[in-house]
Amino acid sequence: PQLFACNQERINLGDKVVVGQDTTVDIATVIEILESEEFFSSPNSQGEEKVSPESIPAIIRKATPQDLQTARELNEKDKREATLFKCKKLVSKHNLPMKLVDAHFSLDGAKITFAFIADGRVDFRELLKDLTRHFNAVIRLQQIGIRDEARFQGDCGHCGRPLCCRSFLRDLKSITSEMAELQQCVHRGSERISGVCGRLMCCLAYEDEGYQELAKKFPPVGDKIKVGDKEGVVCAHNLLKGTISVEITDEKGEVVVVETKVI
């Protein structure tokens, strides 16, 4: 996502707008609106220098029906596939270890952006020269991650809704296996908790803070606690039910597991 200033008409979330990028213009979708006073006066969380309003490019206008039609024609599926096919041939010619994901034409047709995946850095200088000569356009080669690939090619998630990364998420935060374990959904299997990108689903982070707060009310696994008149060891939690499982030795000397309410 990129920051743009809005100096003219009222812009709403989800609006299509025309923006200037370098020497070209393109269409973008508004995914977040920041209040300028708050954004420019607040210190950066990473301690970086504040961004000056003058350094942010402005939105040119709301996209008109003609703008949207032009963008659709420029990025029509057959044209994009033909463009990718030519680029793939040139990638093979230079024997480069990169997987092409998508091609995008700017609104004025003067710039083509190729998105690709690679394990490391790729020296594509000679490829860039060939692409520039062949297409007679400004060429941008953008390396993306596997999770970013879903933004270009994905559609809907397991829930049936549009992918979060494609519709509103600005940053793709790290999703850890600890989040899945805390929310007790690991037993569902990796396919059930992985997104179309093959990584853990972004939505696991949405309730993580709530689960973290809830977990503070439970004794840690391994702690010794009293259940009635007997002492036992905590062996499992069920955060949603508000219960813990405790191993207790009964009168026969056998270890049994009992469930007791915590909250």
CATH architecture of the largest domain: 2-Layer Sandwich
Shape: elongated
**CA-based gyration radius:** 26 Å
Total tally of structural domains: 4
Structure classification? alpha+beta
- Give me the strand/helix succession: EEHEHHEEHEHHHHHEEEE
The chain-level mean pLDDT equals: 85
Q: Span from first to last CA? A: 42 Å
What low-confidence regions span 5 or more consecutive residues with pLDDT below 50? none
Helix fraction? Answer: 25-40%
- CATH class of the largest domain equals Alpha Beta
- Provide the β-strand percentage band: 15-25%
Do you know the CATH topology of the largest domain? GMP Synthetase, Chain A, domain 3
β-strand number = 10
The strand line-up of the biggest sheet is: 7-8-9-10
Q: Number of helical runs? A: 9
Q: Biggest sheet, open or closed, and with what strands and sense?
A: 4 strands, antiparallel
Structural key phrases:
263 residues, alpha+beta, 4 domains, four-stranded antiparallel β-sheet, 24% strand
Describe the structure.
This protein has 263 residues and is α+β, with helices and mostly antiparallel strands. The mean pLDDT is 85. β8 and β9 form a beta hairpin. It has four domains: 16-63, no CATH class; 75-144, GMP Synthetase, Chain A, domain 3 (2-Layer Sandwich); 148-214, no CATH class; 224-261. The chain has helices at 36-41, 65-74, 77-93, 125-135, 146-153, 164-167, 177-182, 190-193, 208-215; strands at 16-21, 24-29, 59-62, 99-105, 111-117, 138-143, 224-227, 230-238, 243-249, 255-261.
